[in-house]
């Protein structure tokens, strides 16, 4: 039996495959709307696009607190690659 590839592990996003013929990959992620946390979904045609979106969303969630910190914009730009 072939070895199964390990899926990327995300803290806030969930990547699943569905039976949809054109966009079988679905990413669900939490969004705060008016103080209520809801899960939204985006569908993708390829696994790579779904994983890229999930990784980008994870980075966005991780950087959320940085935007509201006491670090100036100039200092933050110095750390951006």
Identify the overall geometry: extended
**Spatial extent as radius of gyration:** 16 Å
> Strand order within the widest sheet?
1-2-3
Which secondary-structure class do the elements indicate? alpha+beta
Work out the strand percent. Answer: 25-35%
- Largest sheet, if any? 3 strands, antiparallel
Overall pLDDT metric? 83
* Percentage of residues in helical conformation: 25-40%
Count the DSSP helices.
3
Q: In terms of per-residue confidence, which ranges show pLDDT below 50 for 5 or more consecutive residues?
A: none
Helix and strand run: EEEHHH
N-to-C terminal Cα separation, in Å? 42 Å
Number of separate strands: 3
Keywords:
81 residues, alpha+beta, three-stranded antiparallel beta sheet, 3 helices, extended
Structure commentary:
Strands 1-2-3 form a 3-stranded antiparallel β-sheet, with helices on one face. It is α+β, with helices and mostly antiparallel strands. The chain has helices at 47-62, 64-67, 73-79; strands spanning 14-17, 25-33, 36-44. It has a domain at 14-64. The model has no long low-confidence stretch (mean pLDDT 83).
